[in-house]
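Quick note —
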Amino acid sequence: MVRRFAAHGCGFASAISAALLVGLWTPAVRGEVNGDESVSWWVAESVLVVRGTLSRVDTRTKGDVILSTVTVKVNETLKGKQVDEATFAARHFKTTKLTGALQDEKSEFLFFLVGEGRYVDDDRTSKVSGLSLRNKWGRHSFARLNSKPTRHVFTANFQVLKKRDEILAAVSRSVATQAKGNKPAMHRLDVPFSSPAHGVLYGGSSVYMVVAADADLERIAKQWLKSKDVMQRLQAASSLSHFKNEANIATLKKLLADPGYWIATNADKQRTRVFAVRQAAYSALRAWKVDVPKPQTEERLK
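Predicted structure written out below.
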């Protein structure tokens, strides 16, 4: 077991997160590892994103589960085929935020809908349109736009969106960015301690964010490369692994000499200097079949 941990070129919280990321350190006091998804990933997974108001909600109860068929009067279609009305299935519990939201006929909502029919077995009403409200880890992908938020909306750079205009702008940007190619891959990021998202999600241990590996992430990753924080540069290197082009190959080659490191100490008090940015850059280049010499990624200290 690793007993102690120190870092060069990153804050303490980033150092702890980095150690957890590579499995070098186990906290003495166990907390809850928590995470969520960015709005960019909601968009990537959805076949239809609509803004509108509730016009009808039919429900039936199956044990502790509420099975709802929801019809929305659509004011705007942000992704997918333009529609005036959308009907979808939703499965939820009495205590979930969606249950209260579906009783609000006055507010305007943003709904992220999937078309896989994943609830057909449990809820035959989902056959009405073939659409379901996206639901991951028991958290539904929706947002109330003109009153108190019912669901946190996060960006890929760890901001928490609360205002109607900024939520809609973020969704529109993701739709436009992702429309240029195939569905982006999923990418998981460590949430920095100092970020707004960390303040919302922290449960006593590490915090992560699932994001879409789209052009917006590539842009953000290039900004992180300028950081003095080794953890941000590590996340930049791992993010860029989704975007193979000549410019990113050149960038990752430079990161093979990244000076940032942290020091891990094991149970035998052996101290090792770990150059994680170099390793991430090397792994990405090798995956792209770029022939480069392996850099020094670890250094045992006396």
